[in-house]
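Severity: low
Component: inverse-folding endpoint
Summary: output formatting inconsistent between runs
Steps to reproduce: submit the following structure tokens with default settings.
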């Protein structure tokens, strides 16, 4: 959980708007698979736009012919024509909306899946420096902004643009001077849009970043609600969420203030054009160069010309929001995975379980060295224990085996094959991990057990649960194997969750097993059952054990004592005790604590 307000402080200053057209050029190809739907919708849009520009011409005919020449018998023809036009507008408007929105929803689906697929390819180092809530915001809110641009924005933009050209075409057909007067304010409006965009896009990018950070705060607090309640920190967390939310509100208000001031200013420019056309039109009517019906139609068309400009401004506002969202999506999609499968992957068949570290060194992207010159040969079926103080490099050591991270120097080999030459999916199929903090998915017991082997039979499922000493408590649950266990297995005890994790590993049937503090934070009875289960699980498998409780690794074939990324001692339990060095001191300290305070302290 991130503590302390004000982590938004430098967001606005650090947000530099990039080239919007470059982002737009990369966004538009996302529509490529849906061009048939989009073209069908756009065709209906063009027909609707054309029909919407016909009523002023009919009104001009009614004023000049039906009223001016008193041909009242033509009124029924006009009424039928109006009715047909409005029916056509509604029909093609329905088809336009239907097809465009189907295309938009398909685009949303594709973007979400593409983004999630790319996130799955990124290494753990990417997630080490990212907030979960922010990534979720990009997959939901930012993707939604793209749909608004691609569907609603594209719809309004093309309709507005076509409507403007048609209106101008009809106006100049009545008299070229009127078209010229209508165009006079356009350069001022274009200049206003240009300067507005330079200011507002930075604000919208900041808003998207702030929303992502707010979501990260909420995700942390909701996930950690038990800790919040346990320490009575509800008021403090409420204040932090309120502060973060106010940051989002303040930035939105800045955008609204700019939009609210700019919109009326552009509307005033359009009104000037209407006033100029009205004055000039009356003058032309007096001189006989324009009919009354043509003047009335021109006034309708000048409204049709400037109204789309207002709509286009709203589209432009939406464009800025969408481009800010697109930049955040592109940031994720442009991230190149540091760990990738080789083009000519080597098969890893009939794995025996031999693991070798050959002159291995490792460091994170910060450059700080975590492991240095590690050498180890673990033969099939051996148990290798890793001990050392926190930060010694134990977790980094085991993360190199399934290739969650890549070595900086040296090689990690399984059955004499460098793990970097094997497809990650195939490599990890032979490795199972049981962690200190068991992660279970929100679903049933059965779904969680089958996570590593979905095709497992009911007999295999039951056998794995029995091996893990889990079957007895599972059948006592309200729904047995079909019991919903809640998010992260919240409805189960720590020992029950741990036994389910062991059963999941048993069912996966790996050749290599990693146990990371698998027996910590449980009561004595659960620990006994877990130890029994682990003994069965480790039988015949190459096992790497991280343990702080040294009494649990007495039977290990080899114990490595790590300190500051190097192996400072290695041997069996008895050999290390006889050496009377660091391991012996650690063991005697824990033995003394056990004697003084009981096992609960160790």
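Observed output (run 2 of 3):
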């Amino acid at each position: 959980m991130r503590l302390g307000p004000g982590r938004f402080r430098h967001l606005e200053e650090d947000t530099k708007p990039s080239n919007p057209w470059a982002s737009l050029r990369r966004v538009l190809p996302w529509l490529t698979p849906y061009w048939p739907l989009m073209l069908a919708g756009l065709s209906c849009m063009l027909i609707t736009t054309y029909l919407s520009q016909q009523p002023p011409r009919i009104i001009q005919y009614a004023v000049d012919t039906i009223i001016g020449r008193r041909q009242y018998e033509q009124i029924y023809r006009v009424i039928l024509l109006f009715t047909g036009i409005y029916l056509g507008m509604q029909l093609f408007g329905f088809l336009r909306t239907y097809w465009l929105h189907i295309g938009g929803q398909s685009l949303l689906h594709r973007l979400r899946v593409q983004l999630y697929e790319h996130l799955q390819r990124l290494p753990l180092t990417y997630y080490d420096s990212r907030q979960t809530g922010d990534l979720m915001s990009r997959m939901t809110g930012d993707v939604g902004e793209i749909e608004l641009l691609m569907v609603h924005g594209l719809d309004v933009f093309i309709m507005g643009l076509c409507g403007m050209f048609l209106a101008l075409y009809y106006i100049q057909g009545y008299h070229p001077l009127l078209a010229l007067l209508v165009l006079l304010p356009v350069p001022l409006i274009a200049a206003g849009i240009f300067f507005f965009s330079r200011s507002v896009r930075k604000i919208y990018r900041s808003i998207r970043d702030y929303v992502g950070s707010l979501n990260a705060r909420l995700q942390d607090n909701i996930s950690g609600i038990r800790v919040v309640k346990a320490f009575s920190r509800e008021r403090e967390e409420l204040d932090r969420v309120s502060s973060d939310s106010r940051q989002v509100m303040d930035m939105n208000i800045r955008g609204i203030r700019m939009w609210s001031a700019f919109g009326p200013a552009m509307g005033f420019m359009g009104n000037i054009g209407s006033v100029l056309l009205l004055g000039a039109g009356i003058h032309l009517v007096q001189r006989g160069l324009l009919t009354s019906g043509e003047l009335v139609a021109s006034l309708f068309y000048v409204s049709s010309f400037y109204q789309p400009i207002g709509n286009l401004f709203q589209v432009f506002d939406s464009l800025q929001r969408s481009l800010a969202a697109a930049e955040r999506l592109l940031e994720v999609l442009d991230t190149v995975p540091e760990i990738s499968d080789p083009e000519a992957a080597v098969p890893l068949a009939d794995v025996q379980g031999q693991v070798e570290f050959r002159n291995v060194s490792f460091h994170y992207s910060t450059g700080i060295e975590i492991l240095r010159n590690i050498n180890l040969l673990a033969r099939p079926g051996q148990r290798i224990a890793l001990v050392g103080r926190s930060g010694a490099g134990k977790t980094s050591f085991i993360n190199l085996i399934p290739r969650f991270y890549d070595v900086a120097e040296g090689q990690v080999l399984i059955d004499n094959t460098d793990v970097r030459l094997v497809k990650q999916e195939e490599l990890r199929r032979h490795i199972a991990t049981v962690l200190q903090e068991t992660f279970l998915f929100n679903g049933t017991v059965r779904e969680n057990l089958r996570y590593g082997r979905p095709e497992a039979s009911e007999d295999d499922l039951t056998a794995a649960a029995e091996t893990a000493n889990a079957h007895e408590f599972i059948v006592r649950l309200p729904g047995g194997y079909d019991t919903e266990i809640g998010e992260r297995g919240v409805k189960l005890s720590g020992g029950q969750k741990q036994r389910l994790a062991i059963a999941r590993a048993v069912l996966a049937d790996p050749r290599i097993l990693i146990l990371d503090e698998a027996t910590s934070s449980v009561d004595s009875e659960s620990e006994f059952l877990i130890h029994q289960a682990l003994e069965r699980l480790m039988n015949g498998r190459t096992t790497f054990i991280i343990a702080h409780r040294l009494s649990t690794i007495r039977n290990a074939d080899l114990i490595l004592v790590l300190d500051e990324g190097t192996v400072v001692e290695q041997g069996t339990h008895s050999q290390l005790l006889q050496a009377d060095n660091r391991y012996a001191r650690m063991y005697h300290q824990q033995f003394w604590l056990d004697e003084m305070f009981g096992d609960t302290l160790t």
